[in-house]
Design brief:
The protein has about 475 residues and is α/β, with parallel strands linked by helices. It is about 35% helix and about 15% strand. The strands form six sheets. It has an eight-stranded mixed sheet with strand order 6-5-7-1-8-13-4-14, with helices on both faces. It has a two-stranded antiparallel ribbon with strand order 2-3. Helix 3 crosses helix 9. The radius of gyration is 23 Å and the shape is globular. It starts with a helix and ends in a 13-residue tail after the last strand. The relative contact order is 0.19.
Length: about 475
């Protein structure tokens, strides 16, 4: 009992304990962190949102070459256009690189935004600009503003209790390197699912417990907490423990409700569906993403990184990291298959009005090809010292995909110049990107303010408008 009381005291001690819990995961339930986390999510939140829509964001960390995928330039000089042929898509006038035949075949089910731009050239600042609206071009160790995912989680928590036992915000191997909840606190960070969902041994720890002895053990812990709570109430001047019982119940539901276990269980999918997404990490990540939003998760992020990317495990195709064209070939099949399967599935399962799918990275790659010696051999990289082609960071122009969300699809928005160097038509920035996502989620991005660390009301979008062509 003393050990349990110590754990409880650490929780009450403040934010350091909550950060420790997030590193430990749901195992921390026995030290009361998760119920406390749920309680925090109900404090000081804005008015309820009007819509129960959801968003899946597929993230390409490092930045994807727009010229070699969605915005090819076949008439550009050879030092720009790259080696890949262009192919027609199902949308007249919309050409893709030959690397994306599956997406080309279903181009009527999404819209390509070809004129994104931002002003930060580094991965941290670029990610923070696009995902939180931070206009600072300097790379920082941690975000100044919360990302849109945490904001959405915060605002939706303000709607009060919900029947669904699943978390509102889940990250399946999510992008967390450069973004986060900032002044909202760890209570609004994602419920992180890590590991490789394509592996037979893949599990999500402590979700949907079926062992009744474990359930009884947790119930005893709950009773012990209630006894401790009785002792503490006399010293609870601010009334902070008043709602703890409700949140304890929510935490127990998350652990014991069979719906939770089913939502994370890919074995529930038939073999044909799993094959369709691809029996690899990325394919099964996006299949799990679809399962979770279908089960009621509001915000789902999934990062396409790791060995499927090549030697350095991301899309950062500098010549020192990768032979850019070998890297694109190396990852293209898994990427093309997983994304096209997700988009098709959203429509076939009748989720296309409620669920918006966004596929993007933080920026594009330099239109002009550079050459540098490799720093090491590996997948998509020649031995160290070998001169090979690469493309560097390029925030002035890049593309992203938008599907579902009730939007009109089968078209492309905006354009870049003849070499792909600059967005020149229907130019869109981070504020527009964020406003479009918030609009889909029913969040009033023009009038929603959240207090920062200093207590100052801070707008969730301080510039930009929802992109009219991407509003359902």
């Amino acid at each position: 009992m003393s050990q349990f009381f110590d754990s409880y005291s650490r929780y009450c001690a403040g934010p350091e304990a909550r950060r420790d819990f997030l590193r430990l995961g749901l195992a921390g339930f026995t030290s009361l962190s998760f119920p406390g986390l749920l309680r925090l999510r109900a404090e000081g939140t804005p008015a309820p949102e009007r819509k129960k829509n959801a968003v899946i964001m597929v993230w390409k960390p490092g930045g994807c070459s727009h010229i070699d995928t969605y915005d090819p330039k076949p008439d550009a000089p050879s030092e720009y256009r790259g080696p890949f042929a262009t192919i027609e898509t199902k949308v007249p006038g919309l050409l893709f690189s030959e690397l994306l035949p599956r997406q080309a075949a279903i181009a009527d089910k999404f819209t390509v935004l070809r004129s994104m731009r931002q002003s930060a050239g580094g991965h941290p600042a670029g990610s923070m600009q696009l995902l939180s609206g931070d206009s600072d071009t300097r790379d920082k160790n941690k975000p100044r503003l919360p990302d849109w995912m945490s904001v959405a989680n915060y605002v939706r928590a303000g709607a009060g209790s919900r029947d669904n036992p699943l978390p509102r915000y889940v990250g399946v191997n999510p992008p967390t390197s450069y973004t986060g909840s900032a002044y909202l606190g760890d209570a609004y960070a994602p419920f992180v699912v890590s590991g490789d969902p394509s592996k037979p041994e893949f599990t999500v720890p402590n979700i949907g417990l079926s062992d009744q002895s474990q359930v009884r053990h947790l119930q005893r812990r709950q009773t012990l907490r209630q006894n401790l709570d009785t002792m503490e109430r006399a010293f609870d001047r601010a009334g902070e423990l008043a709602a703890l019982d409700e949140f304890e119940s929510q935490a127990m539901t998350l652990l014991t409700n069979p719906k939770t276990k089913e939502a994370f269980d890919l074995s529930q999918e038939d073999a044909k569906t799993r094959d369709r997404y691809g029996r690899n990490t990325w394919g099964q990540q996006l299949l799990l993403a679809r399962r979770l939003v279908e089960a009621g998760v509001d915000v789902l992020t999934s990062s396409l990184h790791g060995p499927l990317c090549g030697r350095v495990s991301n899309w950062d195709d500098h010549a020192v990291n990768h032979h850019v064209f070998d890297a694109l070939r190396f990852r293209a099949d898994a990427y093309d298959q997983a994304v096209s399967a997700l988009i098709e599935d959203i429509y076939e399962r009748g989720l296309d009005e409620r669920v918006l799918v966004v596929v993007t990275g933080e920026f594009g790659r330099t239109p002009k090809i550079s050459y540098q010696p490799s720093t090491g051999a590996g997948n998509a990289s020649a031995p160290a010292g070998t001169k090979q082609p690469g493309r560097d960071h390029w925030p002035r122009a890049f593309s992203n995909l938008w599907a579902g969300g009730g939007i009109e699809t089968g078209r492309f928005i905006g354009a870049t110049d003849a070499k792909g160097e600059d967005s020149i038509e229907r130019v869109c920035g981070p504020g527009d990107f964020l406003a479009t996502i918030y609009h889909h989620l029913g969040i009033d991005y023009k009038n929603t303010f959240i207090e920062d660390f200093n207590g100052r009301p801070t707008p969730i979008v301080d510039h930009g408008e929802a992109i009219p062509e991407l509003i359902g």
